[in-house]
Design goal:
Elements (H helix, E strand, L loop, with lengths): L1 H9 L3 E5 L4 E3 L2 E3 L2 E4 L2 E3 L2 E3 L6 E4 L4 E3 L2 E8 L2 E3 L2 E9 L4 E3 L2 E3 L1 E4 L4 E3 L2 E3 L12 H7 L4 H8 L4
Length: 153
């Protein structure tokens, strides 16, 4: 119940909600708390840098890099995650990308296709290359990879 309890506790502090059925194409910059139940195609970052928290709901999907103090994922992220404090991957979370974190919890049933790096060990964002560029450099088509893996069906 770690994730459910955490989300219930932070519900009062939600400043922005991107609901199911909403699709945003472009970068998103937010302050405070952001809940994503829709689809974002673009990078998501909290301002000021190293602040804010992001919750990706079960029906939520982000295609881009994410940077915030605290990140909770129950949905899908295709991109790198950088949390200056903590990342929580709940049971059905699906991540295709690298994760840089200070602290992390992972529930049984989540999946990560990428590297896990403690934030102190990496120089973010300079060493945190774009996922799509890294996949293309290796000859992968990200959309084909996702479809064949069946991770997002």
């Amino acid at each position: 119940m770690l994730g459910k309890k955490r989300i219930e506790n932070e519900q009062e502090g939600v400043d922005t909600l991107i609901g199911r059925g909403c699709r945003i194409e472009g970068d998103v910059v937010f302050q405070g708390g952001l809940w994503v139940g829709g689809h974002i195609i673009g990078n998501v970052r909290a301002e000021p840098q190293g602040a804010g928290y992001l919750i990706v709901l079960p029906e939520g999907r982000i295609e881009g890099d994410v940077c915030a103090r605290h990140i909770v994922v129950r949905g899908e992220v295709v991109g790198n995650l950088h949390a200056s404090d903590r990342v929580e991957l709940l049971a059905r979370a699906r991540i295709i990308g690298n994760i840089a974190y200070a602290g992390m919890t992972m529930q049984v049933g989540c999946s990560v296709l990428g590297k896990l790096m403690q934030a102190e060990e990496s120089n973010i964002p300079a060493d945190h290359a774009s996922l799509s560029a890294a996949l293309r450099a290796r000859g992968y088509n990200p959309k084909l990879l996702i479809h064949k893996a069946g991770a997002f069906t």
